[in-house]
Design brief:
Layout (H helix, E strand, L loop, with lengths): L1 H30 L3 E10 L2 E9 L1 H24 L6 H20 L3 H19 L5 H27 L19 H14 L8 H4 L5 H9 L2 H11 L8 H20 L5 H21 L3 H28 L12 H4 L1 H15 L5 H14 L5 H27 L16 H23 L10 H4 L1 H17 L6 H4 L2 H7 L4 H32 L1 H18 L4 H17 L1
Antiparallel strand pairs: 1-2
Helix pairs in contact: 1-2, 2-3, 2-8, 2-12, 2-17, 3-4, 4-5, 5-6, 6-9, 8-12, 9-11, 9-12, 10-11, 10-16, 11-12, 11-16, 12-14, 12-15, 12-17, 14-16, 14-17, 15-17, 16-19, 22-23
Membrane topology: Multi-pass membrane protein
EC number: 7.1.1.2
Enzyme class: translocase
Length: 567
């Protein structure tokens, strides 16, 4: 029980700070107040290296959501990780994860952003390989190498900003002409952290981590770091990168939605839904809808954390089983957990008057008012329909369908700690969408024709019908199982294969050659060990000259005679 009291203490600490930060953000929003703290560490060559904090309503509100979800995850972990040998390691890693995200949220300085950014990548690697097996090792390696690309791009941005003598982007926010290159680098770095195409393969692979970690990663920390960074850098919307961002985000939405429709791993389906929603956030950012993207980011954090935690309760009840084809009839065996699962899925699908409805419907209707091409709008609404399709398919498999294995598994709710941690998130997922839209959103009046106004509803209904059609086993016939289209769609367009072996083969092969030529070749001769053995041999021969040896004396006399004869 000491472990549970420790989890309770962490939850109360996080919840208290979350409550205070949320109301502070509302006060700052109402008064248009922000606080900028600059602590100069040292000056070097005309460049001021400083530690900067920016306290405004955006950072406080997002940090309050991060702390609330983190506290719920800590409380949830008290039961889920029961029996784990390395509880203290798990607590330290989660605390480091939250601390790195807090540093990233509060700091507008690229150097301290890099500290939080790299801290997220490092701790995520340690958490993905928490269960030490080959699958976790491969997933962690793919995760950390994909995120290293973003680290390198931010380092290049830091090197370029030496020209300005300051790494705080607030001072250069209005000067988009001189900051174009930095904007490009940071935007590309955000694509790696938010797993947009072509960096999407690591997100489903990161499901090798424990489910509480997945709940924290996919809701408010790691994958949202890239979206949040683009939200803060408002001056990157003034040039041609918007078109590229729109294309990549729409392709990511379409790929993730199509892949989730043919996936049977419970956690991977939820991971692909996260990828789809990240694409929607990036799409809204490409249109310049910064505040709406932040709104959807906050709402997504709530219902996605609830979705992962309720899925974790189901996996815990099935003793680690994750294949949805072997599950079913949850509303009888686990009624409360299945209710949380359905509420989170309906919020993800954009069910009216839940949290996801207010942000998703707003993005779709505002995109209809923009001057966009038909293909972009078609892909956006088609991907929205796919979101509803895989959501209803998942609900049918888990809740409505008969249990395949019969009574062979003894379902248990445990101590009820996991269900209690889901309760707060259920309440927030139902009511907070309307609350935040009333308090923080000031969107202008949306005027659309009758057909376009009802387009979102029609697309969602068609997606729901398609989802129920896919739920039946007759949809996956023997011929379709082995067709190239199903394989292509279900494997994320072959991105995992392209991201792992081909991308790693040549660098690893080159590294082996360099190791053989350098470390095991020339450096063996010219390095410390080679020079040491060579000097020992030379010194030994020099010592021979000092010995009163007849052979040495005759040899030296012979060299002297040769020298006198030829010179």
């Amino acid at each position: 029980m000491f472990v549970l009291s420790m989890w309770n203490l962490i939850f109360m600490f996080f919840f208290t700070f979350s409550f205070l930060l949320f109301f502070s953000s509302l006060v700052m929003l109402g008064k248009s107040f922000s606080l900028y703290l600059d602590w100069s560490i040292f000056s070097w060559g005309g460049t001021d290296v400083s530690f900067v904090f920016l306290f405004d309503w955006v950072s406080f509100m997002f940090l309050s959501f991060v702390l609330f979800i983190s506290g719920s995850v800590f409380y949830y972990s008290g039961e889920y990780m029961e029996g784990e040998m390395n509880k203290s390691r798990f607590i330290y890693l989660l605390a480091g994860f939250v601390g790195s995200m807090g540093l990233l949220i509060l700091s507008p300085n690229l150097i301290s952003i890099l500290l939080g950014w790299d801290g997220l990548g490092l701790v995520s690697y340690c958490l993905v390989i928490f269960y030490q097996n080959y699958k976790s090792l491969n997933a962690g390696t793919l995760t950390v190498l994909s995120n290293r690309v973003g680290d390198v791009l931010i380092l290049l941005g830091i090197a370029y900003m030496i020209n300005f003598g300051d790494w705080s982007f607030v001072a250069w926010m209005g000067q988009s002409e001189s900051m174009v290159l930095t904007g490009v680098l940071i935007l590309l770095a955000s694509l790696t952290k938010s797993a947009q195409i072509p960096f999407s393969a690591w997100l489903p692979a990161a499901m090798a981590a424990p489910t509480p970690v997945s709940s924290l990663v996919h809701s408010s920390t790691l994958v949202t770091a890239g979206v949040y960074l683009v939200i803060r850098l408002g001056w990157v919307y003034d040039f041609w990168m918007n078109d590229l961002l729109m294309v990549l985000s729409v392709l990511t939405m379409f790929m993730a939605g199509l892949g989730a429709c043919f996936e049977f791993d419970l956690k991977k389906i939820i991971a692909l839904s996260t990828l789809s929603q990240l694409g929607l956030m990036m799409y809204s950012l490409s249109l310049g809808l910064v505040k709406v993207a932040l709104f959807h980011l906050l709402m997504h954090a709530l219902f996605k954390a609830l979705l992962f935690m309720s899925a974790g309760c189901i996996i815990h009840g099935f003793k680690g089983w994750q294949d949805i084809r072997m599950m079913g009839n949850m509303m009888i065996s686990l009624p409360f957990v299945s209710s949380c699962f359905v509420v989170s899925n309906l919020a993800l699908a954009g069910m009216p008057f839940l949290a996801g409805f207010y942000s998703k419907d707003l993005i779709l209707e505002l995109s209809l008012m923009e001057e966009l091409n038909f293909l972009s709008l078609f892909m956006l609404f088609f991907s929205t329909g796919l979101t509803v399709a895989y959501t209803f398919r998942l609900v049918y498999y888990m809740v409505r369908r008969d249990y395949v294995l019969g009574g062979s598994s003894n379902m248990s709710d445990g101590w009820g700690v996991m269900m209690k941690s889901c309760t707060g998130l259920v309440i927030f997922s139902v009511f907070f969408g309307a609350l935040i839209s009333w308090l923080a959103m000031d969107v202008a009046c949306i005027v659309l024709p009758y057909g376009l106004k009802n387009l979102t509803l029609v697309v969602c209904l068609l997606g729901a019908l398609f989802g129920f059609f896919m739920s039946h086993s007759s949809f996956y016939t023997t011929k379709m199982k082995f067709s190239l289209l199903i394989w292509f769609s279900g494997s994320m367009w072959f991105l995992p294969y392209l991201s792992s072996q081909p991308m790693a083969y040549m660098p690893l092969k080159l590294g082996v050659e360099i190791m053989k030529l350098g470390d095991m070749g020339w450096l063996e001769l010219l390095g410390g060990q080679g020079l040491s053995s060579y000097i020992q041999k030379v010194s030994f021969k020099i010592q021979l000259l000092g010995m009163n040896s007849l052979k040495v004396f005759i040899f030296m006399m012979w060299i002297l005679v040769c020298f006198m004869m030829f010179f």
